[in-house]
Write a structure and sequence with these properties.
Four copies of one chain form a homotetramer. Chain A is built from one helix and six strands; from the N terminus they run ββββαββ. Chain A has a five-stranded mixed beta barrel. Chain A is mainly β. Chains A and D meet through strand 1, strand 3, strand 4, strand 5 and strand 6 of A and strand 1, strand 3, strand 4, strand 5 and strand 6 of D. Strand 1 of chain B pairs antiparallel with strand 1 of chain C, so a sheet runs across the interface. Chain B binds two DNA strands through strand 1, strand 3 and strand 4.
Chain lengths: 151, 151, 151, 151
DNA sequence: TTTT
DNA sequence: TTTT
């Protein structure tokens, strides 16, 4: 059982092409550099301000393969995952820490990932597929505005 | 592949005990009534305001069993799920629609669910377990503040 | 103070053009019909399955104006908000309930909203602008991979 | 306008008491070390596994004051914020990077924060207070299960 | 119907 | 009603 929630949701653009490597057992690992930009008008100067944050995202397995195949520098993407901080040794022998987002869901947002669904899944989202138990329920069949509902 | 994101995150308290039923094939279905309360100070009157929203949450399978066993009226719980609107027929034969949150993760937040982990899982969270590929990474081993880092 | 969390995150497409109305005091209210589609391969039949969920989103104030001006039928959009269930009376005098997402953030995701930033804000996101206290911090200035970091 | 989403949601426990400092202009800054723990049953060994992730959370202003006053080592808390990576110089003159969660919402989850609401707000959540435009809408007034709704 |  |  999990004791805690550790969830990250990002929408941003890739700064470089993704890098895919394979572990000895053949599992794919894809690293992504993702930019999220905030802009706002400064209250004092009245000028438009902008700040970009860069994120390290890592994908494993099937998600890594899809990311490596369909994402490119500039791609806009939705990423859901969890924070993880890795410890490593710098060349000077000192400990360093790097925080990454370990992705467990991904969606392309710029229409360049047309073939993505073909291989059978855009992430570890099987838990989101409607369960058999719910199969008797039906979605609303009417997307228009209902005059019957007073706003 | 999913084309869209449909995600709900709730933290609230149960208004009544959960209700568990079993489908013909033996799968559990648990319904929960969850209250989320917002309060704020009104800018005009300066008075404290409060508003409670009631949510219908439905859990299936293993999650339904855990919810039925460990949650009670008053329990504080974290729910993650997706929105789903069901169509049904009122006694007058007219269509009605009910929107529910179909849970795919749950966590008790008031310490009454101590035994929860025993049975093997607090939801459909297997995708969040660290993957084998990451097993070489180590968590930071120190929860204290690092004097080395200037704030 | 809030006692509870009530958060919804959606990415989907508009089924119809947004509808904007103005309250007596001149404040805009915009209603949106948003589709989120899930698709998955059925484990038993092996066939591709698909299910679309329709959401009612309502925006107020500045966000309503932006939504009404920039969104159109087919637009892909990110919505963040909270669930709210309204009670209303059907023509038969009976109570009905409609659940909506009250938006507090919105982002266009298909590049058709280029001019959106001009008016000064894409939502109630002022709390997300970097605060003055943080202004001494600098973002990482390099979106590339760092050879120094072993993966 | 924002171009991107950068959102973190954490539920965890403080590893140490929060540390509050004041900037020259009197604004509070509070640093928090937060642990989120995942546990799962290993499929191969069948043994229970556990992994704790430590997060650095920083709060500013009013939120910093509340965090400093009400949170303690061991407190369970909900944090919502955004990722930010700061660059700093190690004693060896080399660049280091530290990733933090800049909080913009917080909620105590263990009942020790009884007096929290008194001072007027548990975070930058004013945007979540029901807006005047919505004041004509009423919440559902019935939290019980409705026999009328067939499950 | 919950909770603080 | 959308979208891929």
């Amino acid at each position: 059982m999990a004791r805690g929630i550790n969830k990250v949701i990002l929408i941003g653009n890739l700064g470089v092409d993704p890098e895919t490597r394979y572990s000895p057992n053949g599992a794919a690992v894809t690293n992504i550099r993702l930019a999220t930009t905030e802009s706002w008008r400064d209250k004092q100067s009245g000028e438009q301000q902008e700040k970009t944050e860069w994120h390290r995202v890592v994908c494993f397995g099937k998600l890594a393969e899809i990311a490596g195949e369909y994402l490119r520098k500039g791609s806009k993407v939705y990423i859901e995952g969890r924070l993880q901080t890795r410890k490593w040794q710098g060349q000077d022998g000192q400990d360093r820490y790097t925080t990454e987002i370990v992705a467990n869901d991904m969606q392309m947002l710029d229409g360049r990932g047309e073939g993505m669904g073909g291989g059978g899944g855009g992430g570890n989202r099987s838990q989101n597929a409607p369960k058999k138990d719910q199969s008797e329920t039906a979605p609303m069949d009417d997307g228009g505005f209902d005059d019957d509902i007073p706003f």
